[in-house]
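Question: Now follow the chain.
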Amino acid sequence: MKLLAHLNLIFIVLCPSIQGSLFRFTNIECKSLDPEFVEVKECFLKLVRRSVAGMNFHLVIKYGPPVDKIQFNLSIFRKSNVYRLFMFNHTIDYCYYMRRPEQYPLFYIFHDSLMSATNANHTCPYPEKDIYLKKMIFNDQTVRNLPLPDGEYKLRVSVGAFQAWRLQVNVYGVRS
């Protein structure tokens, strides 16, 4: 947690525009990498209020027994002609993370926004066959904690189960 505080301080000093920033979703793409394991029913942005779009998706897990070995990979890309990896590319064991979320400061920044919008907000195993994310937006505190300068970004979340990548979600947005 101290490392995150130090990173924030450095970026606020170097990039003063970060202090009052907004993050606005512009597009979302969901792709099943294993259609026999997971199916993407819905994947879209919906306007929640003026200039605020909420992220929505509905996934159907086709695997029989409860899923208890889940990996998440978060990569942040910044656009400069093309999207290039910028700062983060980190993989975690999601089951361990849900037991101790504060031990992963980068993922914990998104924790409150994500957990209030999904039904996958408990520890493993996951017996649910339908995973929903409804109207997820980044609250002001989440955006302030992101140590990113203004620009266009792509957040890629890859989800794996049983040592194979099963789903990829690309979220595009603008920080201003």
User: Anything to note?
Assistant: The longest helix spans residues 2-14. The chain has four helices and eight strands. The first strand starts at residue 23 and ends at 32.
